[in-house]
Amino acid sequence: MWAFLIQGFSLGLSATASPGPFQAYIIAQSVRNGWKRTLPAALAPLMSDGPIIALVLLVLANLPPDLIRAIRIVGGLFVLYLAARAFQAFRNFPKSSIEPPDAARQSLSQAAVMNFLSPGPYLFWSLLGGPILLSGWEQSPGHAVAFLVGFYTAMVGGLALFIGLFGAARQLGPRVSRALLGISALAMSGLGVYQIWQGIGV
Fold first, then answer.
1. Measured at the alpha carbon of residue 74, what is the angle toward residues 14 and 15, in degrees to the nearest 5?
2. Residue 8, C-beta contacts closer than 8 angstroms, at least 6 positions apart
3. Rounded Cα distance, 78 and 84, in Å
4. Whole-angstrom Cα distance, residue 135 to residue 3?
5. Do residues 84 and 190 touch, judged by C-beta distance below 8 A?
6. % of residues, the chain, pLDDT over 90
7. How far apart (Å, rounded) are the C-alpha atoms in residues 13 and 3?
8. Is the pLDDT higher at 104 or at 132?
9. How far is CA 171 from CA 31, 68, 176, 185, in A?
10. Which residues, including other chains, have CB under 8 Å from residue 21's CB and lie 6 or more apart?
11. Would you state the pLDDT for residue 100?
12. What pLDDT is attached to residue 142?
């Protein structure tokens, strides 16, 4: 059981540190809203990964590649939508620094949608996490649970640390915060275009 727990923890840290649309979104929200309002977004994988794991284990592995490409395209379009919002906040930074009281709830819901539409979780659970989870389940349900506990402990904790570090950048002054917001908007734009490009198979 400890082997599955350690595997899950290691893979969780790796998934958190891997650059992608979700990480770019976390940076943008942390800089724009501060760490307190963005912190709930660290829980987004717990909200969205359940259906993803079920789809991967029961259906996705047997579906044609066209569906994977469609997921990439839809995910890429959503990333571009969030990039446009981040760029708008970059242009109107003095005004955008004042967020409505429900910014934390919006951050969590948008992060969950982004994670669900991103191909990364599907690829991870179909190629790596899913087989390990099934292997653990065949030995005992406790082994599979240990893998999930290790994975999400590392991922949620890593995302929380990620949010805290970039949220603290606001203390360095508005210029630094605005620059980081602009960089995250550019990063999300590039990642969104790349996902669409991968989806249409250019």
1. 5
2. 132, 146, 147, 148, 149, 150, 151, 152, 153, 154
3. 10
4. 12
5. no
6. 7
7. 16
8. 132
9. 10, 41, 9, 20
10. 75, 79, 82, 114, 118, 120, 188, 191, 192, 195
11. 47
12. 92
Q: If we measure between CA atoms, which residue out of 136, 113, 150, 111 comes closest to residue 14?
A: 150
Which amino acid appears at position 102 of this protein?
D
Domain boundaries, the chain: 2-12+24-200
Least confident span in 14-23, 74-83, 143-152: 14-23
Amino acid at 149: V
- Radius of gyration, alpha carbons of the chain: 18
Question: Which residue in the block uniquely carries the two structure tokens 């659970």?
Answer: 125
- For residue 143 the two structure tokens come to 């082994």
How sure is the predictor about 47, in pLDDT bands with cuts at 50, 70 and 90? confident
DSSP label at residue 59: T
